[in-house]
Give the backbone structure.
Amino acid sequence: EVQLVESGGGLVQPGGSLRLSCAASGFTFSSSWMSWVRQAPGKGLEWVANIKQDGSEKYYVDSVKGRFTISRDNAENSLYLQMSSLRAEDTALYYCVRYSTCFGDWGQGILVTVSS
Amino acid sequence: DIQMTQSPSTLSASVGDRVIITCRASQTLSSWLAWYQQKPGKAPKLLIYKASNLESGVPSRFSGSGSGTEFTLTISSLQPDDFATYYCQQYTTYRIFTFGPGTKVDIK
């Protein structure tokens, strides 16, 4: 069974930093593109970032370019999202997602709140 | 960038109704379009990929059609478990993914 478990969320002040982690199991992590998708409270889904199997390609939504960095550790079956210069509009539930047929497997999400 | 729209934004329906949700893209997607269902407090669930392919385990009352810039998700006979929000998503490349704004299906 595929499991994706996010951690590292919480309350952070504007301008601050936070690192999200996602522990993956139940599939061959090193063979999968992985993504982060977020959802602001009461709003729709927004794709945030993608990373290729070997980490050689990374893509971001325009609103986080230069502030967020996606990375992975295939030896640890883990995905990361380093977030810096956080803004109030980054407040959201962040999902770790495995790309299979499409976004076929999702974690339960982790809440990030940016507020003073 | 590709922009996605959905209509309607909200749909009120009864159990047994046939429900159709439309998704339009600002550029051609070929068939690289997926549909997701999300219930309150839950992660989204993939229903349809590549416009018309039913994800494993998804009931056959769900179907998808379309290509190019216009797509539809049809629920042939709405069931109580189907009241949720539905999102379309384009995935023409691995570089950028875009979701539609969502369609909430609620009880009439």
